[in-house]
């Protein structure tokens, strides 16, 4: 599609679109006095040429006539496009005569020609640097007894878990009323209470949940119930009650992970762990956000420092198991 501009010679013109294609010659008889220019593009300049203005100062006067004469005498090799006054594709004495007639007042207006100039340079717009949405900080409460606290190894499994989380680019906030751990543990808060049983944790859990508002709770509890042989028949009921309290306080997207307890040297914990699995399954079937973590299978007695508490290798294994259980929740 091309734009055709027709100059009427009396100060105004008519523009219309036609279906010329690039390189097509215009039939002068069919379109007399027409000029074809490409359809304007938003990034090109519009240039108006004053026909006869061969010195390109936007005024046609005697200087243009003199310059045209030099061209006809061969003293100037070329003229700008404005020299083709009658728009026949040639610059000759006829165009010279039209300019002279205009200067004598015999022609009122030589007209103009509209062309499209060079492309307007596109201003440089730097590509904006994408702003990465920071990963959320997840509040995690390590909950349990001395195995969570870390009697034999400061920081317990929390050090390895912290490193696993942060080295994978996630943000975490360990929460709890207790604190402890080595210098390379970036967040030392927890709720690991040495010597405590299930009921003792249960008696305090509402306060801790209200105060610290964890999104994820990691529960490893029951070892002291077995060590103290404290009403073992009702241990599953106590655990069930504790789970209910935690789930009631979790936020909408919160989760509770309950671990089977690790082996100890002086008692068989497999019966209790079977009960833990049954309680967790029952709660999950009720739609509660509680999940079982098999910690018992991850450690052996050789991973214990004193027959109860893990050594450094054992705690590293625990940290890895916890991380694999919760890593899908860290990117939410």
From TrEMBL:
Gene3D superfamilies, sorted: Dockerin domain, SGNH hydrolase
InterPro entries associated with the record: Dockerin_1_rpt, Dockerin_dom, Dockerin_dom_sf, Ester_Hydrolysis_Enzymes, SGNH_hydro, SGNH_hydro_sf
Domain Dockerin: start-end pairs: 47-112
Gene Ontology terms describing biological process: polysaccharide catabolic process
Origin superkingdom: Bacteria
GO molecular function: hydrolase activity, hydrolyzing O-glycosyl compounds; phosphatidylcholine lysophospholipase activity
Protein name according to UniProt: Lysophospholipase L1-like esterase
Biological source species: Acetivibrio clariflavus (strain DSM 19732 / NBRC 101661 / EBR45) (Clostridium clariflavum)
């Amino acid at each position: 599609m091309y734009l055709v501009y027709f100059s009427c010679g009396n100060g105004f013109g008519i523009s219309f679109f036609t279906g010329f294609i690039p390189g097509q010659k215009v039939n002068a008889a069919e379109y007399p006095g027409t000029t074809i220019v490409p359809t304007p593009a938003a990034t090109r300049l519009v240039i108006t040429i004053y026909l006869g203005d061969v010195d390109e100062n936007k005024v046609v006067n005697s200087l243009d006539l003199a310059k045209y004469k030099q061209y006809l005498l061969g003293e100037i090799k070329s003229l700008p496009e404005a020299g083709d006054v009658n728009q026949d594709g040639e610059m000759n004495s006829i165009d010279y005569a039209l300019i002279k007639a205009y200067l004598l007042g015999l022609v009122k207006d030589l007209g103009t020609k509209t062309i499209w100039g060079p492309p307007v340079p596109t201003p440089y717009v730097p590509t904006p640097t994408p702003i990465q949405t920071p990963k959320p900080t997840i509040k995690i409460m390590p909950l349990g007894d001395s195995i969570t606290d870390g009697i034999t190894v400061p920081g317990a499994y929390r050090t390895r878990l912290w490193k696993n989380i942060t080295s994978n680019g996630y943000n975490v906030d360990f929460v709890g009323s207790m604190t402890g751990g080595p210098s390379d543990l970036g967040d030392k808060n927890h709720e690991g209470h040495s010597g405590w049983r299930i009921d003792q944790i249960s008696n305090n859990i509402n306060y801790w949940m209200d105060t610290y508002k964890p999104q994820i709770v990691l529960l490893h509890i029951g070892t002291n119930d077995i060590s103290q042989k404290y009403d073992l028949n009702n241990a599953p009921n106590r655990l069930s009650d504790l789970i209910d309290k935690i789930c009631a306080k979790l936020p909408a997207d919160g989760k509770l992970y309950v671990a089977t307890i690790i082996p100890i040297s002086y008692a068989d914990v497999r019966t209790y762990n079977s009960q833990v699995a049954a309680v967790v399954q029952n709660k999950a079937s009720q739609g509660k956000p509680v999940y079982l973590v098999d910690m018992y299978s991850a450690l052996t007695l050789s991973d214990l420092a004193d027959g109860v508490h893990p050594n450094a290798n054992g705690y590293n294994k625990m940290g890895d198991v916890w991380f694999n259980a919760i890593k899908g929740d860290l990117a939410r």
